[in-house]
Design brief:
Low-confidence stretches: none
Number of helices: 5
Order of helices and strands: HHHHH
Strand content: under 5%
Helix content: 55-70%
Oligomer: single chain
CATH topology: Recoverin, domain 1
CATH superfamily: EF-hand
Number of domains: 1
CATH architecture: Orthogonal Bundle
Distance between the termini: 41 Å
Shape: elongated
């Protein structure tokens, strides 16, 4: 029974740690988005993306709907911007 409790505690610790990491990553992405969105229209243009080399280099790949702007959803769901 002790082994089961230890395994459960370790498993729950891993889940909590992953949640904390995911939350901090989302907050970092939101902060980056807000810092680039100079006109605060909720979108990042190519001109605004010039403030971040990685986003600018991958702009057309990240722009899923090809409207010439990046939304928060496009930015956070893009596999091209992961480290």
């Amino acid at each position: 029974m002790r082994t089961y409790k230890k395994i459960m505690i370790m498993g729950m610790s891993v889940i909590v740690a992953q949640a904390v990491i995911a939350t901090s990553q989302a907050e970092a992405q939101e902060g980056l988005f807000n810092s680039l969105d100079k006109n605060q229209d909720g979108l990042i243009s190519q001109r605004e993306a010039a403030g971040n080399t990685k986003i600018l280099e991958n702009f057309t790949r990240v722009d899923i709907n090809e409207d010439g702007f990046l939304s928060m959803d496009e930015l956070t769901s893009s596999p091209f911007l992961t480290d």
